[in-house]
């Protein structure tokens, strides 16, 4: 499982959306007037579309300001009329007076019958611009609702998975921590209380450094297993600050203890491996002959689902069984 960040910030940025819709508008202008630019120098097209771009930006800004301040229907009519009439003299001066002075001519000399033609062109331009802006507005609104609902569903699923994992984990943790003891000592109670506090806090994700702290505390409590921790010096502060699902690493340790063989000859190893493009945490334990039959795999499935929903870090999670003897968890940080 490999997760990459999908950045949707551009959807919420009017500048990016304006540029996107403007690009579509420019393509429409180019296609409708392609004969005008054939065989002409490259600067002719920017000169031709300059008023369209200014007109578009003004319309885009006014549209979103109007939506924000809830302009009524009459206000829309007044605004559209002002845009058409206000731009008439500017467009006329630009195409029929300014450009001819620099020897760029798109239209024949101004005549009285050109007034209606120019007003018609400006009105058509306003129509196409408003059409694109309205489509952008409603498409964005639909995408925003879809993204927010997806995030909400994911958050609720993560909460549910985290709660299921918590119940599964607490029962097993208490059994392992108090194993072989006539009375539960203060150290076990303190650790159990710390885990309970984490569950009450309902943080789906925590810093790797915090999760690793609880891993080492749990390792210290499991007296009937031998652990080896290697390569901790390879972990930079940047990696420690990366976030992971709460109790995920501790669940892997609980799983390794529950289904491994006793004795120093079969240690549970936690190894940090520094590779060129990633840092890998490898948790390896020798499986008991009855491990596969006894285990339900529910805890690992819940952890796996929590990692699938991690969208803020580049993380790869792998479970492997080596020679039907060793169960290996590999968590890679890219």
Sequence stretches where pLDDT stays below 50 over 5 or more residues: 1-8
Radius of gyration: 33 Å
CATH class of the largest domain: Alpha Beta
Number of continuous helical runs: 11
CATH superfamily of the largest domain: Histidine kinase-like ATPase, C-terminal domain
Structural class: alpha+beta
* Assembly category: single chain
- The span between the termini is 13 Å
The helix fraction, in percent, is 55-70%
Integer count of domains = 2
What is the correct CATH architecture of the largest domain? Answer: 2-Layer Sandwich
Largest sheet: 6 strands, mixed
Strand content: 5-15%
Q: What is the overall silhouette?
A: elongated
What does this structure look like?
The protein is of the alpha+beta class and 334 residues long. The protein folds into two domains: 104 residues; 178 residues, Heat Shock Protein 90, CATH 3.30.565.10. It has eleven helices and eight strands. Strands 1-7-8-6-5-3 form a six-stranded mixed β-sheet, with helices on one face. Strands 2-4 form a two-stranded antiparallel ribbon. The longest helix has 64 residues. The chain starts with a strand and ends with a strand. The N terminus is likely disordered.
């Amino acid at each position: 499982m490999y997760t990459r960040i999908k950045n949707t910030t551009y959807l919420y940025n009017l500048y990016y959306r304006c540029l996107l819709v403007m690009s579509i508008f420019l393509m429409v202008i180019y296609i409708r007037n392609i004969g005008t630019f054939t065989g002409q120098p490259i600067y002719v097209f920017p000169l031709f579309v300059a008023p369209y771009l200014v007109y578009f930006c003004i319309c885009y800004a006014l549209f979103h300001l109007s939506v924000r301040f809830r302009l009524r229907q009459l206000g829309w009519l007044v605004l559209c009329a002002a845009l058409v009439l206000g731009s008439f003299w500017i467009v006329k001066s630009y195409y029929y007076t300014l450009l001819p002075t620099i020897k760029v001519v798109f239209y024949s000399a101004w005549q009285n019958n050109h007034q209606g033609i120019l007003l018609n062109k400006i009105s058509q331009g306003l129509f196409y611009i408003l059409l694109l802006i309205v489509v952008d507005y409603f498409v964005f609104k639909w995408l925003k609702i879809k993204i927010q609902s997806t995030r909400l569903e994911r958050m609720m699923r993560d909460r549910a998975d985290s709660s299921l994992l918590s119940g599964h984990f607490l029962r097993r943790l208490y059994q392992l921590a108090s194993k072989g003891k006539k009375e539960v000592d203060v150290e076990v109670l303190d650790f159990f209380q710390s885990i309970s506090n984490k569950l009450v806090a309902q943080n789906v994700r925590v810093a790797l450094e915090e999760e690793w702290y609880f891993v080492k505390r749990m390792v210290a409590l499991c007296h009937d297993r031998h652990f080896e921790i290697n390569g901790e010096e390879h972990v930079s502060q940047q990696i420690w600050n990366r976030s992971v699902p709460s109790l995920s690493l501790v669940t892997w340790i609980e799983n390794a203890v529950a289904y491994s063989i006793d004795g120093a000859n079969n240690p549970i190893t936690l190894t940090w491996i520094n590779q060129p493009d990633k840092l890998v945490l490898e948790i390896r334990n020798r499986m008991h002959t009855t491990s596969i039959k006894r285990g339900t795999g529910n805890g690992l499935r819940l952890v796996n689902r929590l990692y699938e929903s991690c969208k803020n870090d580049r993380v790869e999670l792998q479970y492997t069984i080596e020679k039907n003897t060793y169960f290996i968890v590999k968590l890679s940080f890219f």
